[in-house]
Amino acid sequence: MEKKEKESVTGVENKWEHEKGKAPVLEVEDLTVSFGMYYKGLRRRELEVLHRLSLTVYAGEIMAVIGASGSGKSVLAHAVLGILPGNAAVQGEMRYQGGAYGEKEQKRLRGKEIVLIPQSVDYLDPLMRVGRQVRGVRGSKKMQENVFERYGLSENVDRLYPWELSGGMARRVLISAAEMEKARLVVADEPTPGLNEEMAEETMKSFRQMAERGCGVLLITHDIDLAFRSADRIAVFYAGTVVEEALTEDFQSGGAALRHPYSRAFLDALPQNGFRPIPGSQPYAGNLPKGCLFADRCPMRSEACGREIKMREVRGGRVRCIRDEI
User: Do residues 90 and 214 share a domain?
Assistant: First the structure.
């Protein structure tokens, strides 16, 4: 019996390896981000918002990042691009295509091989016409027109300024700008709000086409259904770290296929599953519990949950949980 179980698990792990496909584009290992904050006058403290976070994005895949608001998803995007504010302190290691990826490499690759589709349309330069921003340095007018046509932007849009665009138009412009670059890594931070269902689906098709060209796509989204339909793998964020990485089909199969209690609770709380909530709330970054960050809300917690817990391989996925029976 033990031999059969081992063979079964090995089969799943082989499938996981198959899904990886090519070499990693982005590797994030034990990433910790904190912000220097002042309180009660001149007292300074470090507010840690990402905690020993590890994540890998492979060439040819869409990795979706989901989780509650305030769990650190956008902070991860800004850390990867190297655009955190001056009061941020970063620890841990990031690698790009197997090589070093520090501040020097971030400046050299940002906007070229590594492209951000930001959450806020305020990233557009208000003093520059839209067409010029989208074309950048290397893009042609013809390329820009083709991309605009794909996203339903009329010819006259290229002469408009960002403040003349509607919210949905501005978001489509941001996506168009990313398409103009031959990126190896696209970090899409909530790219679909303000888009109708047709445009959202078109955006996902574009990400899939990028992935098929060998690009890695890190998709940060609150649109869970879109992630389920479009992503290859999904990472679940909770209180500033990844608690589970799994194939999308595990989420589609239901809670029993998942490994972390929070992932299962997150799935149960979706509208299509009856909005079944759990007591409590995500802990504040300035008052984190020791050990498992979800322990206070977990119905299966034990004393062992109070010690340090690292990500580990379980049933073809990765999970930050100490329980053996998951």
Answer: yes
| Gap between the Cα atoms of 161 and 180, Å rounded | 19
| Whether residue 176 is found in the same domain as residue 224 | no
> From CA 213, how far away is CA 181, in angstroms rounded?
13
Quote the tokens at residue 186: 């696209």
Q: Six-digit token pair at 171?
A: 């978001």
Which of 215-219, 274-278, 298-302 reaches the highest mean pLDDT? 215-219
In the 8-state DSSP scheme, what is residue 269? T
Considering the domain architecture, whether residues 143 and 236 belong to the same structural domain is answered as no
**Is 321 a member of any domain?**
no
Residue 106 shares a structural domain with residue 247? yes
Q: Does residue 153 share a domain with residue 31?
A: no
Does residue 217 share a domain with residue 167?
Answer: no
Rounded to 5 degrees, φ, ψ at 259 are -115, -25
Residue 154 and residue 86 in one domain: no
Phi, psi of 123 (to 5 degrees): -70, -20
Range with the poorest average pLDDT among 8-17, 87-96, 315-324 = 8-17
82-131 pLDDT, tens per residue?
A: 999 999 999 999 999 999 999 999 999 998 899 999 888 888 999 999 99
Q: Cα separation of 186 and 287, whole Å? A: 33
- Residue 296 belongs to domain spanning: 2-113+182-312
How many Å apart are CA 212 and CA 251, to the nearest integer? Answer: 23
Q: What is the DSSP string of 26-41?
A: EEEEEEEEEEEEEETT
pLDDT for 299-312, tens place per residue? Answer: 889 989 999 899 99
CA angle (24 as vertex; 86, 254 as ends), nearest 5: 95
pTM, to two decimals: 0.86
245 and 150 in a common domain = no
Q: Which residues contact 123 (CB under 8 A, 6 or more apart)?
A: 116, 174
pLDDT band for position 6 (cuts 50, 70, 90): very low
Judge whether 319 lies within some domain: no
What is the number of structural domains in the chain? 2
